[in-house]
Amino acid sequence: MRKAAEDRLLLLMRTGDQEAFRRLYETTAKGVYSYALSILKHPQDAEEVMQDTYMTAWNQAEQYRPEGKPMAWLLTIARNLCYMRLRKQREHPQISYEELEEETPGELCAQIELAPEKQLLLDALAQLSEEERKIVLLHDAGQMKHREIAEYLGCPLSTVLSKYRRALKKLQKLIDIGNEIKKFEKKG
């Protein structure tokens, strides 16, 4: 049902329908952001890729072929943008040592400014494999169903379900360890 509605919205976008664009964004943005975050591992980069994904979708809506997989089309755009960003970052590091010395700590250390609980979760997510991280983020943050994730990743539903359960157990263990370390550091 959701796929048919998203298909229809993408087809309406071909005609320049801004309301269709807004509704597509509202229903799919969490999934696109989560997917980008699973690849880039940096919230600001994921946010930028998400925005670029929707601009690309708007500009290339006529290229979408309604095959019942609108989210897969958006995630393909996001994946390509993520990999282009990663290649660019490898080729041209974003900041040199000299620039690092000139910057204020707040501008460069956004991670430090995160709430401790959020940073603990991001650290735990970083310990998962890329596939586990994608499954967890697409399901929990992106609100995709396990069946949709299996279809998108091209693997059996049972595999997605078992990897999801294992990933949640790992996350819980890592968060528990992180909390214990914090308690120990406060005492010391």
Give a verbal description of the structure:
There is one protein chain. The protein is mostly helical and 188 residues long. The protein is globular, with a radius of gyration of 19 Å. About 12% of the residues have low confidence. It has 10 helices and no strands.
Search tags:
188 residues; mainly alpha; 78% helix
Helix/strand layout:
Layout: H1 2-13, H2 18-40, H3 43-59, H4 70-91, H5 97-102, H6 105-108, H7 116-126, H8 130-141, H9 146-153, H10 157-187
Helix pairs in contact: 1-2, 2-3, 2-4, 2-8, 3-4, 7-10, 8-10, 9-10
Which outline best applies?
A: globular
Total of DSSP H or I helical runs spanning 4+ residues:
10
Radius of gyration: 19 Å
What portion of residues belong to β-strands?
A: under 5%
Secondary structure: helix percent? over 70%
Ranges with pLDDT <50 over ≥5 residues?
93-114
Run of helices and strands: HHHHHHHHHH
The average pLDDT score comes to 80
Q: How far is the first residue's CA from the last residue's CA?
A: 55 Å
Largest sheet: none
- How many runs of DSSP E, i.e. beta strands? 0
Q: What structural class do you assign from the helix and strand content?
A: mainly alpha
